Amino acid sequence: MTSPLMALWRSLPAPLRRSAHLAKGAPRAAVIGAREWLEAYAKVRAERAREARTLRRTRRRNLRAAGPVTVVGFHGAVHGLGEGARMLTRGLADAGLPVRAVDLSAYVGMPVNLPVTAPPPGPRERGVLISHINPPELLRWTRETEGRLLAGRRHIGYWAWELEDAPADWAPAFDLVDEVWTPSAFAADALRKIAPPRVKVTPLPYPLYLNPRPGADRARFDLPDGLIVLMAFDLRSTAQRKNPYGALRAFRKAASQAHRSALLVCKVVGADLYPETFAALAADVAGDQSIRLMTESLSAADMATLTASCDIVLSLHRSEGYGLLLAEAIWLGKPTVATGWSANAEFMDPASSQAVDYALIPVEGDGAIYQSGRWAAADEDDAARKLARLIDDAPWREELAAATSRNGHLSFDRAAWLDSLRRLLPLR
Asked: What does the UniProt keyword field contain (predicted)?
């Protein structure tokens, strides 16, 4: 036997060693059998030691907030959660905090298309860790890394959920955090339903005020003159929730009612990952000259330029945990027409946006992520009427666009956002 196995063998009680020999009968068979048994035993002991290390490192001690602040997330990915992590990192830096970043894009199989602007944490740095990943990824990452980055740090989970009730299988992740932040009050309400009393859940929307406001550049995207409506969605967020077919039907109804023509630009992310879903969408709009699909991979800056190049933003989603596209549209001065339910209702004010009527219906057809609860079915006739009026009525459209600058939501107000952050994170 190798020396580690021999050490384990000698650590066993004598009756157990004798029984192992007797069970195999012959000396050689006894050695082989003992080796196999000891190897299995060693694996069990190693796994228990691993679990003990993880538990020791992740046990919450309610440490005080201290710098630097490390944001763990999908910093390098063209993805809504990736953009959220990048915005949160910029907001922390804008508050004058020392910021570090850990990119998990490749860890979960996302292409790394963007540079990570903040440095990684140093080997002896502790401070605060904000994990901008949802509980399933957090639990997996913690288990596979034995919670090394959580040791000695105050841990804040930044989680987003799109329905009224958070999944019950998220509950174990509360054991790993000192508190939870969310991008909306809607998401916070859902998470409080399963949070233990010791974990405070607080909304802190994304700091959209940091995003640039580029001018229109239709030539960059080969877009024509005339009125352009934009809808955009990520198939990784599921077509059932984003509901592009409802938006397509509403646009076609609006086009038939309006007195002037319009082009709908449909920006799709994840077409390569869901080829069948995208093929069905492409077949639905094939031959329709008023609808253009766009699958080009765009940076956040390019996406902002695309949004700035359009006139109206449309979304008939069933539910949102924040509603990044709509918030960006308002920040860029664009009127929005969107389902008037869930997190986006928190920043879509009547002065600059058109909230579409809806009915709440049971969740169905999306068992992979959203398995129960309710979400909204937008009234497509109401959406078409509101969109047709916006297409036809240029003065009204300009009135709504001008009103976006007066939207007082926290995401658009630097002083208010920084004040909220400092109350939540009073670094010593």
From this structure: Transferase
Domain identity same for 236 and 373? yes
| Backbone Cα Rg of the chain | 26
Assign 148 to helix, strand or coil.
helix
CA distances from 404 to 63, 67, 265, 307 (A): 40, 35, 22, 14
Range of the domain at 153: 69-205+415-424
Average pLDDT, the chain: 90
**Which residues, other chains included, contact 281 with Cβ-Cβ below 8 Å and sequence gap of 6+?**
239, 244, 245, 266, 268, 293
Question: What residues contact residue 182 under an 8 Å CB cut-off, 6+ apart?
Answer: 158, 159, 160, 161, 188, 191, 201, 202, 203, 204, 321
**Over 90: is that where the pLDDT of 252 sits?**
yes
Q: Can you give the CATH number for the domain in which 224 is found?
A: 3.40.50.2000
Q: How many residues does the chain have?
A: 428
Q: Are residues 289 and 394 in the same domain?
A: yes
- Spatial contact of 310 and 325, defined as CB atoms under 8 Å apart: no
From 304, 234, 217, 241, select the one nearest 77 (Cα to Cα).
Answer: 234
Q: What per-residue confidence (pLDDT) applies to 26?
A: 47
**Rounded distance, CA 305 to CA 219, Å?**
11
What are 167-197's pLDDT values in tens digits? 999 999 999 999 999 999 999 999 999 999 9
Output the CA–CA distances (angstroms, integers) from residue 346 to 155, 270, 355, in the order listed: 27, 27, 11
150 φ, ψ to 5°? -85, -20
**pLDDT at residue 132 is higher than 80:** yes
- Number of compact structural domains in the chain: 3
If residue 387 lies in a helix (H) or strand (E), which one and from where to where?
helix 380-392
Average pLDDT of the residues in 363-382 = 88
Secondary structure (3-state) at 188 = helix
pLDDT digit string (tens) for 311-350?
A: 999 999 999 999 999 999 999 999 999 999 999 999 999 9
Specify whether the CB–CB gap between 164 and 373 falls below 8 A: yes
The Cα–Cα gap between 162 and 349 comes to 20
Taking the model in full, what pTM does it have? Answer: 0.86
Centroid of chain to Cα 427: 26
Structure confidence by residue, pLDDT tens digits, 99-130: 999 999 988 888 888 899 999 999 989 999 99
Q: Is the pLDDT score of 205 beyond 50?
A: yes
